[in-house]
Amino acid sequence: MEGTVFTPCLEGMKSVKSEQGEMLTKPFLELCKTILPVIDKFGAAMTLVKADIGGNISRLEKNYLSDPDKYKYLYTFVQGEIESKTAKGSSSCTNGLLWLTRAMDFLVELFRNLVAHQDWSMSQACGESYQKTLKKWHGWLASSTFSMALKLAPDRKKFMDVISGSGDIYADMERFCTEFGPFLQENHKFLASVGLDDLKAS
Fold it and tell me: How far, CA to CA in Å, does 197 sit from each of 98, 107, 128, 143?
């Protein structure tokens, strides 16, 4: 593997914003897709996360493809749903963007932990990241299911060997967190500005 598993993600980040600094729908969704192969390397522990991310990307992509000009900018989905009063529905694009962003928060926090705490086991890094990001938004059922799944986290050394390729994995991981994190913060900031950043799961 040329570079590391993060190489396509790092490339994709360059085109997420327009020249005016607005978040573009297609490049953002494509960027999120480049993270799916990284999640695959976690095996069974991340099956739920991958399904969640994949489902939300598909939901947003389907709507984007229905009118690419109308939905060129990522937040147009939300603005349209606010007008039609459908933003809070469980199958809305607003909900999809919110949960996609939260799942990505979890992954950024996880990779941050792996860089900062190289003595931590994978399950410890996963557990800490979950507590800090997704847990407060999950109800009892989602929380129990998620915590069970994270117990299946792979051995850290094996995981790092698999994702390293020919590049500097810790440098790429750190760069991913530093560069991807602000996009997620921007999504939260926008969703908070319209009062939709605190929807919970049952």
Answer: 7, 18, 22, 19
